[in-house]
Amino acid sequence: EQIEKGGYQHFMLKEIFEQPKSILDTMRGRLLAEEGIIKMAGIWDHLERLTNAERIIIIACGTSWHAGLIGEYLIEEFARVPVEVEYASEFRYRDPIISSKDVVIAISQSGETADTMAAIKLAKERGAFVFGICNVVDSSIARYTDAGAYTHAGPEIGVASTKAFTAQLTILSLIAIKLGNHNGNLGKADFMRLITELESIPKKVEEVLNSVDEVVKGIAKKFADATNFLYLGRGYNFPAALEGALKLKEISYIHAEGYPAAEMKHGPIALIDENMPIVIIAPKVGHYDKIVSNVQEIKARKGIVIAVINKGDTQVAAMADYIIEIPETSECFSPILASVPLQLLSYYIAVERGANVDQPRNLAKSVTVE
Ligand code: G6P
User: Fold this and answer.
1) Tens digits of residue pLDDT in 71-86
2) Sequence-separated (6 or more) residues with CB below 8 Å from residue 290
3) 147, 212, 227, 243: most buried, per Cβ within 10 A?
4) pLDDT tens-digit map of 249-295
């Protein structure tokens, strides 16, 4: 096992550090940025299904569901197709309206999650075409879906999903950008700009890993005894906030809630006092000015701000108690970069607390029962 961990203390840490390579592996042979080509036979062989879809429904559980939420933002922004994201466990039991005009994208790292499988069966019975995005080759979901793409992130052993998540975001980016270009909603110049940027993501993830590790370790030491955490983000980084909070809950057993930053005023703001650490994802993209106001609101209530910001940002940096810097990228890819320090934060907090990082209590890597 020590050999399999490749010198890392835990599989989770190894998998976090593997991400520059796993994201590259996900793109390998698929993204030819200079030629302006995205290849993915498993999906493009049925591209017309996607093009003709009146609606795309993304079905998943856990971390994969968070990837699905970002998929919704990506597909709606670039391809302008309406997307709904459903928890498989809810979808399967609520007699959902679904027909042959719908296309389903099921996302599952393991390809074995019982709820996701049952939801796929239901969707197929009602005539929908189902694509699968799985990491485990030849898994049940990969075999049962009509078509799909593997994430190729390599085996993920740590129960808390890390590299599979960023691989899922990579695949969803490729699908959304290609579909948008194909159905005429994404012009050539924007298409080229996006794929060139996507190609640079593995390098930028590496940059994040090299630069934030010590900073995040220091923050983890300070907050290892916290009892609550709030994670906030806007736009594409709202699901990233949910995922950051989930990581912390899963492995450190600290209660954490993810929220859209603007929604804070409808509830979580009541929780803020000088003991509440608040992780706020605030790169200079989208509605940055709005997130600046959210930070002001938190500081006015003496909350402790741990901000994920772009290098060189001064506005949020001036107000935050702790900063974690990530490189600039397009808004749609910023959750990939922002997720990496949040994975590390949960990891180092769990280690500080002496938790069993790779096998947290009560959780399973793949949930094959209801
Ligand atoms: C379990 C795992 C999570 C995972 C979820 C969905 O709860 O602990 O890490 O996100 O199942 O799994 P899947 O394999 O379908 O992505």
Assistant:
1) 999 999 999 999 999 9
2) 234, 261, 262
3) 243
4) 999 999 999 999 999 999 999 999 999 999 999 999 999 999 999 99
Q: How many A from CA of 232 to the centre of ligand 1?
A: 22
- Give the global pTM: 0.97
- Among 194, 179, 211, CA closest to 310: 211
The dihedral sign for the CA sequence 138, 140, 145, 149: negative
Asked if 121 is an active-site residue, the reply is no
Of 109, 249, 358, best ligand 1 pocket probe by most atoms within 8 Å of the beta carbon: 109
ipTM score for this prediction: 0.98
How far is ligand 1, taken at its centre, from the CA of residue 150, in Å? 16
Please pick, among 124, 299, 311, 365, the residue that the annotation labels catalytic: 365
Helix H or strand E segment including 300: helix 288-300
Pocket test for ligand 1, best of 165, 347, 367 (most atoms within 8 A of CB): 367
For residue 200, what is the DSSP state? T
Q: Which of 281, 309, 335 is nearest to 73 (CA)?
A: 335
What does the alpha-carbon distance between residue 248 and residue 279 come to, in Å, rounded to a whole number?
A: 11
- Per DSSP bridges, beta strands 304-310 and 228-233 are unpaired
What is the CB < 6 Å shell around ligand 1? 61-64, 108-110, 113, 116, 159-161, 363, 365-367
